[in-house]
Amino acid sequence: MREFSEAYLERTREGMWDDSRQALAPLALDSRERVLDVGCGTGELSRVLVAESAGEVVGCDADRELLEFAGEHVPVIAGDALRLPFPDDSFDLVVCQALLINLPDPAAALAEFARVSTDLVAAVEPDNGAVEVDSSVPTEERLESRARRAYLEGIGTDVTLGADAREAFSEAGLDVLETRRYDHERTIEPPYGEAALTIAQRKATGAGLADDRETMLEGAMDDEEYDALRSEWRAMGRDVIEQMEDRRYRRSEEIPFFVTVGRVNGPQ
Length: 268
Description:
With about 270 residues, the protein is of the alpha/beta class. It has ten helices and eight strands.
């Protein structure tokens, strides 16, 4: 399973659910007594669940360092999504966000979620193949699309799962009730915050692309193609910084997330 830093999780999930929580309506959070957030990371979704739920929310993640951050908001416990450290029927809702896309067998995880739930299981998963980028730097959209394609070809899990999570739910023995779409939009515009400046710097140095080099080379991309992409990427990053200095840089990114909800249909 991929590992993520606290800074990465905060950067990619910042502002999610601030504009609308309508896609979470099928979870009936106001009627829940005990909710488990699996793969909670630093607790971004956990905080939303606490705000919307009438009952207790518990966070669970395999990364103990991330749990230190989540623990500031909810009770937490370290545990593997495939071997949850809870007895059967411990919760009436088990939910995860951007977790299944990082697992080789999503259905196995969902079956484990169903084991500890008496009622609902829900997954909030993106389709990373349908991300849309608009930038004031002309080359940014093209290069990001190229890098994304190379990454998708090399990754070993289905990071485009999104709306197709229904199949994994059915395989896990859950009755699929509903799937709703939520579009998470991230924008960068003046005045630029520290996170935006860090992203720009990582583009200019190629550090961000370097993080995914090994994965890209697992697909159709070879070393020469990667080096050429990285060279263009760094030039694009310098253009971003130049526009930032003139307060001209603007960027928007829209990522579709799909909230799939299933009901436990009997003893697991």
